[in-house]
Design goal:
Length: 164
């Protein structure tokens, strides 16, 4: 005994219409492709803007911190040199080496953290690249005749499903 055919709920856009003409299908394909490209470009612009904004903010904060901290650090370093020299009876040059070495180490750590945030990899639009790869995979599956449906991601926010 054959099982009853299960009907699938289609949205208006993906409902199969076998009476459509080839030019109509091609026009639909072009329209959907154009919409997809526009949406991907908008996502890329948004993601680049967010990443650049974050990098500029980080660089500005690092620059402002350097301007404010240099004079105060010089004064604190001098106080440290004189303090170590007074407590240990070491010569000033030995105290200066200890204080200078400590501040150099702290400065190198801060430099490494700041540079890691300014690398080109941190500015890449990873979400957009992932979405384009998903779209390409979906197009390949559709070309191969796989009619499965995949829920949309949170980016579209329309709650509809897309054919995968």
């Amino acid at each position: 005994m054959a099982e009853p055919r299960q009907e699938r709920a289609y949205t208006r856009v993906e409902r199969p219409n076998y009476d459509r003409s080839i030019p109509g299908i091609l026009a639909d394909l072009l329209s959907q492709f154009t919409t997809l490209i526009r949406q991907e470009a908008a996502l890329a612009r948004t993601e680049f803007s967010e990443n650049i904004s974050r990098a500029v903010t980080g660089a500005g904060m690092a620059g402002g911190a350097a301007v404010l901290l240099v004079p105060s650090l010089v004064i604190l370093m001098m106080a440290g040199v004189y303090g170590i020299a007074a407590l240990t009876d070491w010569p000033l040059w030995a105290s200066a080496l200890i204080v200078g070495g400590g501040f150099t180490l702290i400065g190198l750590i801060l430099l490494a953290v700041g540079m890691s945030r300014l690398k080109a990899r941190a500015l890449m639009p990873d979400k957009t690249i992932g979405q384009v790869k998903e779209d390409a995979a979906m197009a390949r599956r559709q070309m191969n005749g796989d009619p499965t449906v995949v829920p949309t991601d949170a980016r579209s926010g329309d709650g509809k499903e897309r054919a995968a």
